[in-house]
């Protein structure tokens, strides 16, 4: 278990980005500025640690103001067919436009099976871990108590 966890580099940053992403989505309907701030923070985290966001995640954020793009709420989604068939996302906060071409049978590199090299399992065993964690401090306390009692005795 311990070795497997060590393999996940920048786990803390990923967790932080996850938190910020969720926070920004929650704030999207309440305050767009705060949502944009959280989104900006998330992108900053990724940039600082040189981590890449998943394309689907990246596409759900405005490239210009980092507000989460929620269709009908913070973004307008339209299908266009003029030059090429594509999906047009308009951010209603900064009016920035993003276009994604829709090609039949096209898959992002990450969605292709060749992109997956190895799958790591990080599912923790909650019951065992909790027992171990709760046991550890008690043992330390016992040791401390023993040491104190020894000191007092001597
Ligand atoms: Zn925007």
From TrEMBL:
Keyword tRNA processing: yes
Entry GO terms, CC: nucleolar ribonuclease P complex
GO MF, any single term: metal ion binding
Signal peptide annotation: none
Domain of life: Eukaryota
Classification via InterPro entries: Rpr2/Snm1/Rpp21 (IPR007175)
Record region (Disordered): 125-154
Family to which this protein belongs: Belongs to the eukaryotic/archaeal RNase P protein component 4 family.
Protein name: Ribonuclease p protein subunit p21-like protein
Organism from which the protein derives: Lasius niger (Black garden ant)
